[in-house]
Amino acid sequence: MNKIILLSLCFSLVIVSIFFIFLMDAYITIYDPNWHGIVNINKESVIDQKIFLLGSSSAYAVNASFVNENLLKNNHDYEFYNLADMSDKPKKRLNSIQNLLNHNPSVILYGVGIYDFEKYNPKTSSLSIDDYILEPNIYFKNTFEDLIQNNLNEQFPLSPKDRILTFLKYVLRGPDHHFHPFIPFSPTPINDFSTIQKLHGEARTINPIDMSDNSDQIHALNTIISKAKSQNTKVILFTNPNSILLNQKIDKNELSNFKISIQRFAEKNDVPIYFLHDKYSEMNIWRDSLHIAIDPDAIIFSHDISKILLKELKNSAI
């Protein structure tokens, strides 16, 4: 009887977990740039040609309105959407890429960072049996993280409540910010490096990276680029900006390995790449060690993204 109860509990846990993960990702999986909600069902986008920016929250500070104004000033009839999402990595984005490609973007601008290729360090063997007895919640947390090969905070950066509310708002009235649908585009303060350390502590270190052909993230990025190219969508890569606080925590050899490896990857896939990971590292434009602030004084990132797009649009017959 006890075994039956235990099996029933395990089965229920699996079903609830699958449903939970589905709800957390449903918003991105069904996303439609032309959708303005049930209450605005007849509203349509004016411009058909679209440019999608993909990547993690490291890219969310790119101001879509600023980029769209620059495209318009230079007589490019496109709509630019910042589709950066929290804790996004190529393997995670692969789950929703076909939905995005179904909307026929002319260009995909993809931000990749060194943390995207970090090896996961298993946790279940790092604690003693006593630790698990005293704090069983750690055992279940570590076991689940080892199962998904990711940290829970990265896999689910928003609470279920926030994600479900976002999903419901999207269905009813569309995203809060039409050109920033996945992360709220609200102003954030610029903090100097001393303040960042006081508020957030030391930037975290990084595990060794894997950018070999056997890497799941490299395989996913290859697949995304291949799918995009198969329908004549141009792909442009750029490296995510890091602050000096972050770069100081990364071994110089790893940074060099990342730059060389992503350069080779871009050449192999015949896509252009722009290196921004250390361009702004010492500038006073940061909210924290990983994120550029959403502030008029930090517009340089958006300005550079605009320049990249204008250059590539000029050089390519899109």
Topology:
Layout: H1 2-29, E1 50-54, H2 64-73, E2 79-82, H3 90-93, H4 97-101, E3 107-112, H5 129-134, H6 136-148, H7 152-155, H8 160-173, H9 193-200, H10 216-230, E4 234-239, H11 244-247, H12 252-269, E5 273-274, H13 300-315
Parallel strand pairs: 1-2, 1-3, 3-4, 4-5
Helix pairs in contact: 1-8, 2-13
Task: Describe the structure in your own words.
It contains 13 helices and 5 strands. With 318 residues, it is of the alpha/beta class. It folds into 2 domains: 2-118 and 159-315, 3-Layer(aba) Sandwich (Rossmann fold), CATH 3.40.50.1110; 121-157, no CATH class. It has a 5-stranded parallel beta sheet with strand order 2-1-3-4-5, sandwiched between helices. The termini are far apart. 29% of the residues are buried.
